[in-house]
Amino acid sequence: MTDHGPVRDAADVRARLDAQDYLADEGLSTAVFLALELGLPLLLEGEPGVGKTAAAQVLARALDAPLVRLQCYEGLTAAEALYDWNHQRQLMAIRLAEVNHERLAEADLFAEEFLQERPILRCVRYDGPRPPVLLIDEVDRADDQFDALLLEFLGEGSVTVPEIGTFRAAQPPVVVLTSNRSRDLHDALRRRCLYHWLEYPAPERVVEILRRTVPTASGSLIASAAAFVGHVRSLGVDKAPGISEAVNWVAALSVLGVSELVRDDLGDRVGLTLGALAKTPDDRELVTAALAEGAW
């Protein structure tokens, strides 16, 4: 049974994540423990597919805390990430005041009752029994100006609404940011976070992850597939397969009744599953050639 009390140390973090079938190494479990203990945001960087997003999702379950996710993208604004005004309700208030021959001051329309919480403000004002885990996912996809919008929140755990004032979290959320390094994050943002680079897991850990996530797959299939995915990552493919691709591939093979990688299956069951592993025509060609060579 998972202990949902305060974490004791890095080993406790690791055990809790393990109970949720997320295998963290000592580096990640220590980074998470320190982020929790010090109350600092944790910035996870690494190649796509190494488990950054999953780490935050699993951490929420391990802490029995709600997960609030902010998926970043180009053009993301404060109105979508921090807060916005309910313009429809403001308009209705204006019309009601006109009907009742009342006068509304501008301040009346920018009161708390018209405030709409977006993910970050929602976390700041959250009053549940445990602070939520806020996942700011793929922050590098947002414009670099977005970094500046996060500084007050990351540094002070607060959000300022100019018309109302500053909201400060009574129990600061656990904040995990992820980045695939598609752009350089602002130095001020990095300074406010603990940082951890997440490596692609070692082969034995990949085997264990596959064993847990695809329990229907045979040991032989898991071992050979893990070795082959590791080989594919060394081929210089455009989209190197991560853990999620490896899991999907083994799951697809298992569904089709494949119990081990056999070269004779290339044109049949194994070949039909390569869409889980290779995401471009060129990559598929490289992966097919590697399979034909028996690279597992």
Please provide a written account of the structure.
It is a single chain. The chain is α/β, with parallel strands linked by helices and 296 residues long. The chain contains 14 helices and 9 strands. The protein has helices at residues 10-19, 26-38, 52-62, 78-81, 87-99, 106-109, 119-124, 144-156, 187-191, 203-213, 219-233, 243-255, 269-272, 281-292; strands at 42-45, 67-71, 83-85, 115-117, 133-137, 158-161, 165-168, 174-179, 194-197. The radius of gyration is 24 Å and the shape is elongated. The chain starts with 9 loop residues before the first helix and ends with a helix.
Task: Describe this protein with a few key phrases.
14 helices, five-stranded parallel β-sheet, single chain, alpha/beta, two-stranded antiparallel sheet, 296 residues
